[in-house]
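Fig. S4 source data, part A: sequence.
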Amino acid sequence: MNLFRYLTIGLVLSTKLEAQTLTVLSNLGGDAGDRPQDALVLESNTLYGTTWYQGPGGNGTIFKVNTDGTGFAVLHSSISNDCAHPRGLIVCNGTLYGSDTGSASSYGSIFSLNADGSSFTNLKVFSGSDGAGPIGGLARDGNTLYGVTVGGGSATNGTIFKLNTDGTGFTTIYTFTPTTWSPGVAWTNCDGADPSAGLTLSGSTLFGTTQSAGMGGAGTVFKLNTDGSSFVVLHPFSYTSSNLDGELPQAQLLLSGGVLYGTTQYDTSGGAGTLFRLNTDGSGFAVLHQFTNSGPLSGVILGAANTLYGTVPNGGIELGVAYQVNTDGTGFTVLHNFSWDSESGNWDGGLPLGGLILSGNTLYGTAAIGGTNRAGTVFALQLPPPAPPLISGIFQTNGNVAFTWNASAGVSYQVQYRTDFSSTTWANLGSVILATNNAASATDPLGTGAQRFYRVVRLPH
């Protein structure tokens, strides 16, 4: 078979990368609430979030809005102080779970409500001795919720707990130990103190961070089993001037492929925090990026092509940025600078304290200030389309037709062929190919057919 009767075609033209487009989906303020501080959660085409202040009860709101910006509604507001300053929502099958972080007269609680706002229920009210201030988000495994409190417990340094989704079975599975003052360092202990980030669950293991104490006084990364056993500090952060790892990790960890990714708010080099990685056994710690001007208060999420996305509340041109960076630390890029239009007084938002979520090719998040009411915004940030796969070479080897194309690591591709150029029907050639770097290849045995035309399809992430 003559190789040149096997033809390759690239049906998708190269696409010029365009600037990211930010759209304000909702301007918060007044009864809608003020100062959102957490990432949104998504179910179907509806976003759910919380605000820290205002609303009818003055203590914040739980709200929803569609991904196209329609249908904004307040689902719950604490009029009777049943939910002061809600934080950290998760959503599952039409039910929301979250935390009331407490007030001067309460230690906080864990709540549930239906996605239409009905059936608000306090599942657990903390007493102080069993925890206080459940600031971090919840992790869910079946009918069990896991979370942390920033204070309380026998040493008042915070706890890790679990409870059932119906409010039964509350158990404190770990209590952080007392601290002692270490001159020239800080308050230290063996495990950390004041956990303020949600836990990351993998199988029967929970991963998390503390924002203070530990052997170096500046927080820890830890893991433990879901029954509270086998607590291990994976990495202690230090206040010493020679340590460039970072200080005060306050965000939830991302777990991908046996690697944890996280952020710190500060570092000892005079910078403003770090993005770091380490393996789940504590080895391989590395700083991927050192921030300037301001450190992140939220973690990162993983998109296609081994790309991490996150926010920083200050820095950039004015009032914070959304950014992307590769998982190896290269390619740091500012996607959007939040700013104020001095002529109209309009802001697209500022101080993005919460993290981002990704759906399709769009990032969604919140900004704590700005917008037409200067009380925060819910926004969508459209990413540029990914580079299309273009077949770049074809050759014959060992009785096969072989060809290569540009690819993105972590993205799946399907090679297809047809024997008639005018046909509209394509057949799959082999199985799906998962790219591991910036190029991928496939082969097809030479046959007796007169010709074949090939294309490569990038599959949804």
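Fig. S4 source data, part B ends here. Residues 1-18 have pLDDT under 50 and may be disordered.
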